[in-house]
Amino acid sequence: MEPIIRLDGAGFRYDHLQERPEAEWALRGVHLQVGSGEYIAVMGPNGSGKSTLAKLLNGLLLPSEGKVWVGGLDTGLEKNHPLIRQKVGMVFQNPDNQIVGTTVKDDVAFGMENLGVPRQEMLKRIDQVLQQVGLRGREASSPHHLSGGQKQRLAIAGVMAMRPEVIIFDEATSMLDPGGRREVLDAITELHRQGTTVIHITHSVKEAFQAERVVVMADGRIEWSGAPHELFHRREKLTRWSLEVPLPLELKERLRRRGLPIRHEITGTEELVESLWKLLSRD
Amino acid sequence: MEIVIQGLTYRYMAGTPYERCALADVDWTIPSGSFVAIIGGTGSGKTTLIQMIAGLMTPTRGHVLIGGIDDFSRLRGRVGVVFQYPEHQLFEETVAKDIAYGPLNLGLSQEEVNYRVEQAMGWVGLPRELASRSPFHLSGGQMRRVAIAGVLSMQPEVLVLDEPTAGLDPAGQRELMERMYTLHRERSMTVILVSHNMEEAATYAERVLVLYQGRKVAEGQPVDIFSRHRSLKEWGLEAPEAPRLADRLNRRLDPPLPDGLMTVDDLEEAILARWEGRPR
């Protein structure tokens, strides 16, 4: 099957915008395919090209080299942009920058109005998406009275109402408290379950674990791509890519180095607690 | 400068149907030269509290005394606030000019201003050659540092940091916090950290204030606050991962590991001590 997103040697250089001789490639030679309905996480240090990649995927930026295809459409052709932007929705970091309506209902309607969705259909979708993100009953509320997690869920509802095939979350949880973060992650899982393709850009290894595939970026290139559990057996690599090493993994490695007979395969908290309990209780 | 907060209350849109109490009767004393953290979920009143500490909002009731003074016109420059995403407030043509803006407004000599700019760039780890560059051509992490340097160039005695590491990668987060911590120690600068990152609060703060729905619900050392797992959950928070792992282990282990294991170092040592001391 044709992937929903395909990058063929895509690169991007910011010197189009500003004539600087020292302008560097923000992205270089990226080959990536994302299957329809897939859930991928994109990780990497600041400046590794994650956000540039995201902006290439809906034509906000155009590749300086190579090609980007969305649902078979070349993002390099301007006539494709309206359709591409319908296919690819984005949710950004700061919930306060994404709210445009004075009520929850108006806010969800905004994107659909721009698409020219008929009123009856609009009302139906508003009801449906607010139900899906758990904000039904709040239609008349002012978005500014919502919590951070609720605002982000409202932003997600607004994007969902436009029925995109792909939703990109660009560090959409980084400004939220632990409760709000959980709400948004649950909403993402639900979207994926319903068949939406999800691309989740995050600094959190724990959040990346929810995805089916992790892509690690460094210096504008894809460094590594694979199943999350494979990544967690590569402690040295996590450190090299300046990603955080999950606590159970770090603790296990340290204790092993100091002679505790803990199995190498352990990666999760539950398994580690189980193993430590057995070791320390043995008499 | 000691900060004394007494009966601090703030109501938004008082006297209208939209009246909402953002902060209610908060008492707190922050000792001079200490490093403290304010934690709480979204809408708990953290930002309202620091805006009043910075003198940017007038309390509905109660007061904030900084070094015994409650007249903020006399405190300008002595309390520095780094807001969330401070890089959105950069505006000058060059990094050096942006950082110099505050000290120039204090009426300092050009020589003194230049010195302060250089000093502040050093504190945040910005290489000197960036001084003449446009702040808008820097990476997100560097822009954040320029904005923080702009506040530090005022040489504040109290530094308020509102989510200073949000959006930085893990390595960038650690470096920024280490630099702020060093500055706190070397200059006895009081630091008030507002953070969603419980690891940061547990690692750097001497005292932690917990706000929930505008009220102070707990205050104490990180060790005490972060061992209250059930209460934290109720407040929409959670302990850092190390004490949570210790808690799960201790629910099964008899006798349990000692209390107060806050970091992976603590856990490593406690588990090793138990392992080596086990009966053979």
From TrEMBL, chain A:
GO MF annotation: an example: ATP binding
Highest taxon listed in the record's lineage: Bacteria
Compartment list: Cell membrane
Membrane topology: Peripheral membrane protein
Keyword hit for Zinc: no
Organism: Melghirimyces thermohalophilus
Protein name: Energy-coupling factor transport system ATP-binding protein
Domain ABC transporter: start-end pairs: 12-244
Coarse class of the protein's main subcellular location: membrane
SUPFAM superfamilies per the UniProt record, alphabetical: P-loop containing nucleoside triphosphate hydrolases (SSF52540)
Family per similarity comment: Belongs to the ABC transporter superfamily.
PROSITE patterns, alphabetized: ABC_TRANSPORTER_1, ABC_TRANSPORTER_2
Pfam families, sorted: ABC_tran
Keyword Nucleotide-binding: yes
Any one cellular-component term (Gene Ontology): ATP-binding cassette (ABC) transporter complex
Keywords: ATP-binding, Cell membrane, Membrane, Nucleotide-binding, Translocase, Transport
Automatic annotation (TrEMBL), chain B:
Keyword Ribonucleoprotein: no
Pfam families attached to this UniProt entry: ABC_tran
Compartment(s): Cell membrane
Record-level GO cellular component terms: ATP-binding cassette (ABC) transporter complex
Annotated InterPro entries: AAA+_ATPase (IPR003593), ABC_transporter-like_ATP-bd (IPR003439), ABC_transporter-like_CS (IPR017871), ABC_transpr_CbiO/EcfA_su (IPR015856), ECF_ABC_transporter_ATP-bd (IPR050095), EcfA2 (IPR030946), P-loop_NTPase (IPR027417)
Oligomeric form and interacting partners: Forms a stable energy-coupling factor (ECF) transporter complex composed of 2 membrane-embedded substrate-binding proteins (S component), 2 ATP-binding proteins (A component) and 2 transmembrane proteins (T component).
Protein name per Swiss-Prot or TrEMBL: Energy-coupling factor transporter ATP-binding protein EcfA2
